[in-house]
Design brief:
Strand content: 15-25%
Number of domains: 2
Shape: globular
Number of strands: 22
Radius of gyration: 21 Å
Mean pLDDT: 94
Structural class: alpha/beta
Length: 451
């Protein structure tokens, strides 16, 4: 068989791994590239393998960089089935519609204000394109063997990371290929620990934090200090957050602080329509996380939930100090831009980053100390304080990833390090070789390997 590394090789985003055999072709994940312009431009390039020749897609989870290219794949000719878990179907649906809506709105704004190089600016895909994807989804329960052909089976197993996320065990002609997807932390506040693979001939493991260990800090204390210090300055705290899982994690931590009277009685606002929708998915899929229905209800009751954009505008111009959680997590688009346009230049305000910031994103630039950032064609001075609570990442760190491999009963034939920038992947490669003596390789984007 051949493995085509069509995304998330040498970079974190754009997850696409094609397994090609004589009888069928299976695409593991179908995500958007995010970050630097060179990567984003790949989203408009035709796939290096004809979509009409792909028979199936199997999704590890519903994040944009794992499912967000599906509308383009379908537009370009894919007509097969898309397998995923029940929460992943709902989250992917929400994320794709949100992505399409943002693209349509940004194209409209670019054409109106004439700041795009393209004339006219057009979205990569539209809401109508997403409508064509939804009927292709097929929901699969974890830990069940699903027969694709006489010689090909797959099953999902729990990966933590976000609601519904699973790793994939794919058996092809008696060879077992394991795709980690994104692996969560063992001590996630909302999700259960990831399940480790037991058997694999070939492993495709993520390496986002392959060269880092999460700090041994107390996120509750860090959050408490930041909010209270900003409140003393009569400022606002803006938390750019991924609408899936991260919003809910931050909500949980704020709820814990509020119950302990450690943070002030000010407005706590969730301004991400998709994040609000994901809360419903959380409540409907309680076997996938630690909170019961009553805890979900109590947690949600302390927040003002905003869906209508006119409420966003009112909130922005409300002068009282407040804490706002708004998408997107890497500040690549969404409601958070509206807040930052107003707040980023004012020194009394704070911006709190709570997850991975990919190369080339506004979040990464803020993290690296940028003095100005560009939004909607204009530059804004960065005078607000910028903080990072890294321990809240939904990704496991180097130790977690090494531990994820610890239950393999036999030595795999090869480990492929994917979903990481080159330095992170290579350092994890060295650590795996040192600890387990496994044969490891870091594939490059576009590489095709025969196994």
């Amino acid at each position: 068989m051949k493995i085509h590394f069509l995304g998330a090789a040498g970079t974190v985003t754009g997850s696409k791994f094609l397994v090609e055999t004589d009888e069928t072709s299976i695409l593991i994940d179908c995500g958007l590239f995010q970050g630097i312009k060179m990567l984003r431009e790949l989203n408009r390039e035709p796939l290096a393998y004809k979509p009409e020749n792909i028979d199936y897609v199997i999704l590890t989870h519903g994040h944009l960089d794992h499912c967000g290219w599906l509308p383009k794949l379908v537009n370009d000719g894919f007509t097969g089935k898309i397998f995923c878990t029940a929460p992943t179907k709902e989250i992917a649906r929400l994320i794709m519609y949100d992505s399409a809506k943002i693209q349509e709105e940004e194209a409209e704004r670019a054409n109106k204000e004439k700041y795009s190089k393209h004339e006219p600016a057009i979205p990569l895909y539209t809401v109508e394109d997403v409508n064509k994807v939804i009927p292709l989804f097929r929901v699969v329960e974890p830990d069940l063997d699903i027969k694709i052909t006489d010689d090909i089976y797959f099953s999902f197993f729990y990966a933590s990371h976000i609601l519904g996320a699973c790793s994939i065990s794919l058996q092809v002609n008696n060879e077992i290929l394991v795709f980690s997807g994104d692996v969560g932390q063992d001590d996630d506040v909302l999700l259960f620990p990831p399940i480790k693979p037991k058997k694999a001939d070939y492993v495709f493991i993520e390496s986002t934090y392959g060269n880092r260990l999460h700090p041994n800090n107390d996120p509750l204390f860090d959050l408490e200090m930041l909010i209270n210090n900003t409140f003393q300055k009569k400022g606002n705290v803006v938390i750019p957050s991924f609408a899936v899982e991260r919003v809910q994690t931050v909500m949980y931590l704020l709820w814990q602080l509020k119950k302990q009277d450690r943070i002030p009685n000010i407005p706590y606002i969730i301004d991400t329509p998709m994040g609000i929708s994901v809360l419903k998915v959380f409540q409907e899929n309680r076997k996938w996380h630690k909170l019961n229905f009553e805890e979900c209800e109590e947690m949600c009751s302390m927040f003002t939930l905003i869906s209508d954009y006119k409420d966003t505008i009112e909130t922005i111009y409300d002068k009282q100090p407040k804490v706002i959680i708004a998408a997107s997590g890497m500040i690549t688009g969404g409601r958070v831009l509206s807040y930052l346009e107003r707040y980023i230049s004012k020194p009394e305000n704070s911006v709190l980053l709570v997850g991975y910031q990919a190369e080339g994103t506004r979040g990464r630039k803020l993290l690296e100390g940028a003095k100005e950032i560009k939004m909607y064609g204009k530059y804004y001075e960065v005078n607000a304080s910028v903080f990072l609570i890294e321990g809240l990442s939904a990704h496991g760190d180097q130790k977690d990833l090494l531990d994820w491999l610890s239950d393999l009963t036999e030595k795999p034939k090869k480990i492929f390090l994917v979903h990481g920038e080159n330095m992170a992947s290579d350092e994890l490669r060295i650590k795996i070789q040192e600890k387990y003596n496994f044969d490891c390789v870091v594939p490059y984007l576009g590489q095709v390997i025969e196994i």
